[in-house]
Specification:
The protein is built from 10 helices and 6 strands; from the N terminus they run H-E-H-E-E-H-H-E-E-H-H-E-H-H-H-H. With 256 residues, the protein is mainly α. Among the domains are: 119 residues, no CATH class; 39 residues, no CATH class. The radius of gyration is 26 Å and the shape is flat. InterPro entries: Znf_SWIM. GO terms for molecular function: zinc ion binding.
Length: 256
């Protein structure tokens, strides 16, 4: 058993600072959110699908939709995982991307709470209910339900929306799709053997090619079992500072 003074020193100097940093990170508004629980991705897909699902006209008179309370008497809502239907979703104003990062669940109607949930009619009274103020207090039912699905607090992702309304993932996916599509186009150019095209790629894309070589070179060096680990401030890999290396192929095979 360790001496008490040594144990106290370890707790105070080694363990406590980690929790102080975590607490400060949770209580300070830095524009960064904890990693999204898995249900939020499914919720966004379901919401977007319901936004685009056409509503058959005339609407069945038996379907009574209350946009303020987000309830409907159609048979689709009670069997929905998220208690949503196309009538409710399309009776609300379009929501911004940040809605899917911040919306909270509640135990009673309205089952979803966020300031952007406003009926199309423009009735301001809808903001007087729980939807507008559900996030004001620390003990709301929405907070309790959301915490049940929160994943590891240490996994942080930057989900702050860009000026054009896109989230980090949406912006990155758009760039990846552009690069992949352009790579297919370049592959098609090989059959023509046009040196002018090659020179244009190397001239106009020089900075991007340098970044790609630096990132892949850093990854290769990290995966080697021999040799020195690349330094964070190494001039040759400085541009790849924020690039996280993928696990070696052998690790992927072992995982399966």
């Amino acid at each position: 058993m360790p001496r008490c003074d040594l144990l106290a020193w370890i707790l105070i100097t080694k363990l406590a600072p980690c929790y102080y940093r975590k607490l400060d990170r949770l209580l300070t508004d830095t524009g960064r959110y904890r990693e999204l629980p898995s249900w939020r991705r499914d919720f966004k897909q379901a919401w977007r699908k319901l936004e685009k699902t056409p509503i058959t006209l005339p609407v069945n008179p038996a379907y009574k939709t209350d946009a303020k309370k987000m309830i409907c008497t159609c048979p689709s809502l009670p069997i929905s995982r998220f208690l949503l239907c196309k009538h409710v979703v399309q009776a609300l104003e379009p929501v911004p991307p940040v809605f899917f990062l911040e919306v909270k669940r509640q135990r009673t109607a309205p089952f979803w709470a966020h300031p952007s949930l406003r009926p199309l009619s423009g009735d301001d009274s809808a903001q007087d209910g729980p939807s507008a103020h559900a996030g004001d207090g620390p003990n709301t039912a929405g907070d309790a339900l959301s915490d049940l699905d929160d994943e590891d607090d240490d996994n942080l992702v930057d989900t702050q929306p860009y000026d054009d309304g896109r989230t980090f993932v949406e912006a990155m996916d758009e760039n990846i799709d552009l690069i992949l599509e352009f790579a297919k186009g370049l592959k098609y150019q090989c059959q023509f053997r046009d040196q002018r095209m090659l020179q244009a790629v190397e001239r106009e894309g020089a900075s991007f090619l340098r970044l790609a070589r630096a990132c892949l070179g850093k990854e290769k060096r990290l995966q080697l079992t021999r040799g020195t680990t690349p330094s964070t401030w190494d001039k040759s890999t400085g541009s790849a500072m924020f690039y996280r290396a993928r696990p070696p192929a052998s690790d992927d095979l072992n995982a399966h």
